[in-house]
User: Which sequence fits this backbone?
């Protein structure tokens, strides 16, 4: 029996929770991808595999991690898909995965694959500011170009940021600052930045959506939603901070208790295929599979063809290892 908890009928994707045995030709996938991405990717998979029905549960990164851990004794999904590597390597989640190397996974650099084949990272996202140019003009505010600029008093109350306790985007932003500045200077920066933050929002994309609606001047978000906002005609400028952009990789893995492993493996095989790369390139600034190209929309928004020079050198193992301690301190000292 399948019980719907929310319908995305307009997207052609049902968000479901499977409460009984999955049927042949049907899989349940848990993901943190955005809804418009889900639509495009699932349609692409179904074009190649029309006999497999894909049920998708989409939650923000932090909420999805909490759900996977809560369901550990009785997992309801076959595949984890598009999930932050920082969360995937949490032993409580990593130990729920079965070793499986998708077809053609060898074409990915080793740094994008688990050494034991429990996950493969195919895409990623990077931090970006969504700046509403009309709000800046109306309030006579300068264009920020860096994280340091955001500390200027003129931006007080004009900045919104994802809550790192629930948003993978929010977490990558603060952990990149902590890794880049060091513990002492990093925490001081976050406290100083808090003085200008209007609110911390649960979603990684919502700060950009709030900025593009004119509610705030600056939404700290990530490149995909900035690019889409610009393409849709909103008065947004995408700013990659001059210090470098923190980033996260998104990984896929097979759940040990999957009830339909044959079709789950088909899904994972497709996730590293040429067809998948073409779709990823329309939405992602980071595609780990050779052959991906920056989309025309991304180029128009200002994303360089080669993003490597603008990415901060992230230590994902440290991000994962220190996650609980960082979030505990952030909740104690900053969250409101």
Assistant:
């Amino acid at each position: 029996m399948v019980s719907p908890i929310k319908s995305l009928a307009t997207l052609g994707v049902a968000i479901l929770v499977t409460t009984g045995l999955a049927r042949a030709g049907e899989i349940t996938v848990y993901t943190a991808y955005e809804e418009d991405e889900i639509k495009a990717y699932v349609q692409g998979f179904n074009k190649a595999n029309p006999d497999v029905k894909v049920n998708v549960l989409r939650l923000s990164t932090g909420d999805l991690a909490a759900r996977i851990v809560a369901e550990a004794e009785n997992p309801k999904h076959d595949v984890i898909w598009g999930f932050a590597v920082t969360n995937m390597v949490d032993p409580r989640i990593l130990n729920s995965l079965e070793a499986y190397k998708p077809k053609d996974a060898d074409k990915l650099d080793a740094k994008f694959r688990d050494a034991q084949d429990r996950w493969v990272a195919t895409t990623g996202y990077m931090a970006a500011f969504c700046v509403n140019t009309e709000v800046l003009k109306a309030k006579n505010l300068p264009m920020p170009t860096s994280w340091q600029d955001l500390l200027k008093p003129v931006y007080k109350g004009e900045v919104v940021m994802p809550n790192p306790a629930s948003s993978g985007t929010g977490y990558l932003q603060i952990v990149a600052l902590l890794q880049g500045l060091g513990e002492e200077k990093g925490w001081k920066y976050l406290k100083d930045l808090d003085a200008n933050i209007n609110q911390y929002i649960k979603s990684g994309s919502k700060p950009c959506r709030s900025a593009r609606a004119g509610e705030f001047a600056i939404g700290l978000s990530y490149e995909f939603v900035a690019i889409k906002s610009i393409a849709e005609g909103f008065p947004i400028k995408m700013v990659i901070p001059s210090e470098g952009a923190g980033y996260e990789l998104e990984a896929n893995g097979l759940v040990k208790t999957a009830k339909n492993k044959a079709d789950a493996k088909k899904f994972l095989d497709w996730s590293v295929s040429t067809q998948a790369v073409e779709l990823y390139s329309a939405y992602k600034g980071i595609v780990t599979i050779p052959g991906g190209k920056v989309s025309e929309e991304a180029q128009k928004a200002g994303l360089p063809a080669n993003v490597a020079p603008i990415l901060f050198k992230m230590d994902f193992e440290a991000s994962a290892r220190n996650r609980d301690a960082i979030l505990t301190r952030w909740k104690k000292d900053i969250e409101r």
Remarks:
- Confidence is low (pLDDT under 50) at residues 1-22.
